[in-house]
């Protein structure tokens, strides 16, 4: 298996997960700023690996498999850190919605692949918007401090709520796209 640049960037995201956790819990001035920077770097590599793959035609089956796995692991880790640091009902609810949807959509994609209909549940534009809002929210929540008088954490909370709602919307969009195939399979 040849490792492409996009796949190496995806692997970097996975390697950054324990680094994110370690930095988040280290007790030094600026630890949360460093954790937010690590997550921001991981988010940028998510965009960059896709851009490079499309621009330079560097696709691989392994990369296509690993990219969403790396994204979900990084997001779930950041959500767990955030909920642990701020265990409120709303924070936990939004995190549960986001993680639950990711599991459900992954299962749906797997099932659709078994039916030979995986293309019906490909990433839609609402999913891309959800990802952007979610990444910005998590950077704000990991940062945890005000910046230039802006309540960054509160902004992150509101963005996370928006991301959870977009998550539900995109999850229903995937289900709606897959429904005819699922209904047909149920008849057989």
Automatic annotation (TrEMBL):
Pfam family, one: CDP-OH_P_transf
Xref: InterPro entries: CDP-alcohol_PTase-I (IPR050324), CDP-OH_P_trans (IPR000462), CDP-OH_PTrfase_TM_dom (IPR043130), CDP_ALCOHOL_P_TRANSF_CS (IPR048254), Phosphatidylglycerol_P_synth (IPR004570)
Protein name: CDP-diacylglycerol--glycerol-3-phosphate 3-phosphatidyltransferase
EC number: 2.7.8.5
GO term, biological process aspect, one: regulation of developmental process
Subcellular location: Membrane
Top-level taxonomy: Bacteria, Pseudomonadati, Pseudomonadota, Gammaproteobacteria, Lysobacterales
Membrane topology according to the record: Multi-pass membrane protein
Catalytically driven reaction(s): a CDP-1,2-diacyl-sn-glycerol + sn-glycerol 3-phosphate = a 1,2-diacyl-sn-glycero-3-phospho-(1'-sn-glycero-3'-phosphate) + CMP + H(+)
Transmembrane segments: 6-26, 33-53, 73-100, 121-144, 150-175
Gene3D superfamilies on file: 1.20.120.1760
Metabolic or biological pathway: Phospholipid metabolism; phosphatidylglycerol biosynthesis; phosphatidylglycerol from CDP-diacylglycerol: step 1/2
The family this protein is said to belong to: Belongs to the CDP-alcohol phosphatidyltransferase class-I family.
Gene Ontology MF annotations: CDP-diacylglycerol-glycerol-3-phosphate 3-phosphatidyltransferase activity; small molecule binding
Top EC class of this enzyme: transferase
